[in-house]
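Researcher: I've been going back and forth with a colleague about how ornithine decarboxylase might be arranged in three dimensions. Neither of us has a model we trust, so I'd like an independent prediction. The organism is Aureimonas jatrophae, in case that matters for your notes. Sequence below.
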Amino acid sequence: MATQRILDFIATRRPTGPCLVVDLDIVEDNFRAFRRALPDSAIFYAVKANPAPEILRLLASLGSSFDCASVAEIEMALDAGATPDRISYGNTIKKERDIAAAHAHGVSLFAVDCVEEVEKVSRAAPGARVFCRVLTSGEGAEWPLSRKFGCVPAMAIDVLTHAATLGLVPTGVSFHVGSQQCDTGAWDGALADAAHVFGELAERGIQLTLVNMGGGFPTRYLKDVPSAQAYGRSIFDALRRHFGNKLPETIIEPGRGMVGDAGVIKAEVVLVSRKSASDENRWVYLDIGKFGGLAETMDEAIRYPIRTARDADRMEPCVLAGPTCDSADVLYEKTPYPLPISLTVGDEVLIEGTGAYTTTYSAVAFNGFEPLRSYVI
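Model: Here is an independent structure prediction for ornithine decarboxylase. You can compare it with whatever you and your colleague have in mind.
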């Protein structure tokens, strides 16, 4: 949230236009919390959450590994100081030439979820290690992931068997329980599926060694969320329940949980208006919206904490919208957002919990509004 370091930076630098400010001390605190919570699991930071070089360098220096979705992200992790053995190419949808490029960089761990992807890896990265992603329901997540990634456990067994026949090393299973997953028990069913795949492949003479338990660890927005320690206890209990004393090597891929609460967006009120004399709700327009980095307000899935200097005044619900000439650029309308009745043009607002998935969603200057500027302190 808005640490004193962030507040001091905004007060002294007075950056114009919307910007994200990230406090590296919070990122380091979060990394150490994950390490304490799951000391036997390797941490592979999900680079897509926030690929700022300062964040990647810090995490690399702390011993983090990296989950990468593209060759560009792999190169970012290498530039930050990670060695290839600390990088996973975790995207299940890869061009064959990108697999070859990653392999040329020394990366040897690849995600797959179908026979066709296995065949690409076998041609472009012979002898590589592969893990197969299995589908999960995503129930309990505020930003559930779709059926775009993964396959059913029965197919995962065939996919990994096929990988072995092509000279690849079937290494394990991965899953993702959904982003901003607030149910600490959500990993139980997925670990049961993973254990089933392990057992079936052992009967075929293939010994898997790795379970990639994905991300999903939440950051605090308007509601409290369980601690990293609570997730760690629940996940370890599920591992023991389904794997007994033969615990596999495990990976976690925190992204939002690593950087979300480390960042704050400074924005400005551009306009306050009503649509009619009888309109119950004011419309408050900010200089940032869905296309400026707040894409996760889609369907109002993520509701960010918003602070102003007028929060002691009377609050009334309003419709909150962005500045672009696109009717989809409305942040909160279905459930109006309470903001001070005295809020007016030119007022500064702080949008907290915005360290993850904001700069990366704001990569294009839609309507000519520049991509979200970022400061890492």
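Researcher: What would you highlight for our discussion?
Model: I'd start with this: The chain has a mean pLDDT of 94. After that, consider the following. Residues 187-203 form the longest helix (17 residues).
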